[in-house]
Amino acid sequence: MAYQKKADEHHVLVITNDSTVFLTNRWVSAFEMFGGRVTEVEKLVCDIEEICNVSFGIISGKFGFIPADYVVMPYDNVPSCKEEYEELQERKDYAGRIKQLAGPIFDKIVVCVPKDMFAIIMDSLPRGRVIAVTSKDYEQECIDRGWTFLPRSGARVGDENKEKILEIIRSL
Predict the structure, then answer these.
(1) Are 71 and 32 in contact (CB under 8 A)?
(2) Is 128 in contact with 147 (CB distance < 8 Å)?
(3) Is the alpha carbon torsion for 31, 32, 38, 43 positive or negative?
(4) C-alpha span between 82 and 119 (Å, rounded)
(5) Exposed e or buried b per residue across 89-123, where buried means at least 16 C-beta atoms within 10 angstroms of its C-beta
(6) Backbone dihedral region of 84: left (phi > 0), alpha (psi from -120 to 50 degrees) or beta?
(7) Rounded distance between C-alpha atoms, residue 111 and residue 43, angstroms
(8) pLDDT level of residue 152 (50, 70, 90 thresholds)
């Protein structure tokens, strides 16, 4: 039977990409694997979890778009530039996977990825429900799609943006 969302229930999806900082050489969940810039987004996810239901997805250089509870091992070749993001898209179609998963169950989708990766996934995201933490290059595009635009600051999110995101989610 399909999941039926309750009227007073809210769901948020948070999307980020992997990091070159691997916290262990063992098989663990993606949530536990990545340090560095991912840590800031993980803290945001924990704060959102105190407000409502939250799902966390990571665009991985080896596996494509995966849920953060997916078990992974360290790997080489973490994408870090436009060409590598495009090559990963060709190999794993992470934008297509995001489009499949970013359905109507999610009231908001928070996206914290580099600008060249954002360019690849933005057509996979639904109108009106996205909070985009990205380059100012995409501010008007975000406004045109009915999204909340927040300029990227800090490692991935920034303290000021984090507070704005939490305020938006509390108001759902």
Answers:
(1) no
(2) yes
(3) positive
(4) 9
(5) beebebbebbbebbeeebbbbbbbbbebbbbbbbe
(6) alpha
(7) 14
(8) very high
> 3-state SS string over the chain?
CCCCCCCCCCEEEEEEECCCCECCCCCEEHHHHECCCHHHHHHHHHHHHCCCEEEEEEEECCCEEEECCCEECCCCCCCCCHHHHHHHHHHHCHHHHHHHHCCCCCCEEEEECCHHHHHHHHHHCCCCCEEEEECHHHHHHHHHCCCEEEECCCCCCCHHHHHHHHHHHHCC
Q: How many other β-carbons are positioned within 10 Å of the β-carbon of residue 56?
A: 25
Residue type, 75: Y
Q: Which two structure tokens, joined as six digits, stand for 3?
A: 């999941």
Cα–Cα distances in angstroms (integers) from residue 42 to residues 67, 112, 141, in the given order: 13, 11, 26
pLDDT (tens digit per residue) in 53-86: 999 999 999 999 999 999 999 999 999 999 999 9
Question: Which phi and psi (to 5°) does residue 133 adopt?
Answer: -100, 100
What is the C-alpha to C-alpha distance for residues 45 and 157, in angstroms, rounded to an integer? 11
